[in-house]
Amino acid sequence: MSLIERIDKSRVPHHIAIIMDGNGRWAKQQGENRVFGHYEGVNSVREVVEAAGEAGIDYITLYAFSTENWNRPKEEVDALMELLVATISLETPKLNAKNVRLRAIGDLSTLPASCRQELQEAMATTETNTGLTLILALSYSSKWEIMTAVRQLGEDVLAGKLKPSEIREKDLEKYLCTNEYPDPELMIRTSGEHRISNFLLWQLAYAEFYFTEKLWPEFRKEDLFQAIINFQNRERRFGKTSEQITSS
Ligand code: FPP
């Protein structure tokens, strides 16, 4: 039986979030510079997006560039931005053909104008697609996102719209970049690192974590299927007991 056939399509996670890690180490193993690893990483992105569509996933969020990544050497940051622009421009017709809707989260105002423009165009072109929603986290960090939301809530309190004692989870969630999307149920990180790295701290509260030793350029279609099968073999309790879950 192939891996995709082993997936129970009625119980796939609605939303998968991925920390794509290990491009630099993979490139080093090949005796190449770090940027070579990012280029190969794009092939993994393409396969994983295809695989997510085939498995019937509704949303996939990819951590493509963190707020902290701005501190990398200028040549690497410039190369990553160029790669993003080139990839978005090249892949948008394919995303459209596969009914994928492209979205982005993060402080997009900090991206170079060319990148912002390419992104806006691609998002507009794919806006009415009804299949998988591919969300790119760009210049994103969770603490930035939560801080921004808290400031907006503070403004609401100042304007008398609500009292501090009345603030509920959904009042804060309204101001998160992910407001329109369900929380990820599965978070995957490649390259053997077991960290969350400022990624969707609020939204991953109940997510299952899946770690693999594979470096991102090695993570392909079958690896995503494997992660989904692993997810389906877990028992999700949301703080309840095992007995409460099986009797409900
Ligand atoms: C982490 O590997 C990867 C990144 C910071 C960039 C990810 C970007 C891509 C895969 C390409 C563009 C993506 C899209 C969606 C078009 P690392 O450089 O931290 O690797 P290391 O830990 O081995 O140094």
Give a structural overview.
- This protein is of the alpha/beta class and 248 residues long.
- It contains eight helices and six strands.
- Helix content is 43%, strand content 14%.
- Strands 3-4-2-1-5-6 form a six-stranded parallel sheet, with helices on both faces.
- Helix 1 packs across helix 2 and helix 2 packs across helix 7.
- Bound molecules: farnesyl diphosphate.
- The site of farnesyl diphosphate has 20 residues, from helix 1, helix 2, strand 2 and helix 3.
Main attributes of the structure:
248 residues, alpha/beta, six-stranded parallel sheet, binds farnesyl diphosphate
User: How would you characterize the largest beta sheet?
Assistant: 6 strands, parallel
Counted beta strands: 6
Please state the overall shape, judged from the principal axes of the Cα atoms.
globular
- The SS-based structural class is alpha/beta
Q: List the ligand species.
A: farnesyl diphosphate
Total helix count?
8
CATH topology name: Undecaprenyl pyrophosphate synthetase
CA gyration radius, whole angstroms: 19 Å
Give the CATH class.
Alpha Beta
Portion of residues within helices = 40-55%
Looking at this structure, what is the CATH superfamily? Decaprenyl diphosphate synthase-like
Chain-averaged pLDDT: 96
Q: Strand arrangement, largest sheet?
A: 3-4-2-1-5-6
The N- to C-terminal Cα distance equals 31 Å
Blueprint (SSEs and pairs):
Blueprint: E1 15-19, H1 23-29, H2 34-55, E2 59-66, H3 74-97, E3 101-105, H4 113-126, E4 133-140, H5 142-158, H6 169-173, E5 186-189, E6 208-211, H7 221-232, H8 242-247
Parallel strand pairs: 1-2, 1-5, 2-4, 3-4, 5-6
Helix pairs in contact: 1-2, 2-3, 2-7, 3-4
Bound molecules: farnesyl diphosphate (FPP).
Farnesyl diphosphate (FPP) binds at residues 20-25, 34, 38, 41-42, 45, 62, 64, 69, 83-84, 87, 136, 191, 216.
